[in-house]
Design brief:
129 residues; mainly alpha; 72% helix; 0% strand; flat; Leptin receptor gene-related protein; membrane; transmembrane; Vps55/LEPROT
Length: 129
């Protein structure tokens, strides 16, 4: 029963994060959908690490060159998703309020992604296959 509550909590947190991003785009005073491009970074962020985990041999551990490269690319996606709304706000394309809502959504969504992979990476969990 505890495992189901963790999954429900992660789903709720992800929904709250996406609500912030959608509010940054859809509120009447903002009306621009440029901040929604961070969703592309949400999708791309875990892909390099998942590929590296699949291709890393058991003897290499977590310090293999493949895993280090994947973490570097993942951090590039993460930094880009925080930099995009700031650059758009500094350029005057979006308002600062939309930038703050997008940044708040980024924090919540990335903590949700981290929690998801932490729960599913545990070997003694009911979720592990």
């Amino acid at each position: 029963m505890l495992a189901n509550s963790n999954l429900v909590s992660l789903a709720f947190a992800g929904s709250i994060g996406m609500t912030f991003v959608i509010l940054a785009c859809a509120l009447p005073q903002y009306k621009l959908w440029w901040p929604f491009f961070v969703v592309l970074f949400y999708i791309l962020c875990p892909i390099p690490t998942m590929i590296a985990r699949r291709h890393t041999d058991g003897a290499g551990g977590s310090n293999s060159a493949c895993m280090e490269t994947a973490v570097f690319i993942t951090m590039g996606f993460l930094v880009s998703s925080f930099a995009l709304p700031i650059v758009l706000a500094r350029a005057g394309v979006i308002f600062w309020g939309a930038c703050y809502l997008t940044l708040a959504g980024n924090v919540i969504v990335y903590l949700t992604i981290l929690g998801f992979f932490t729960i599913f990476d545990m070997d003694d969990s009911d979720y592990a296959m």
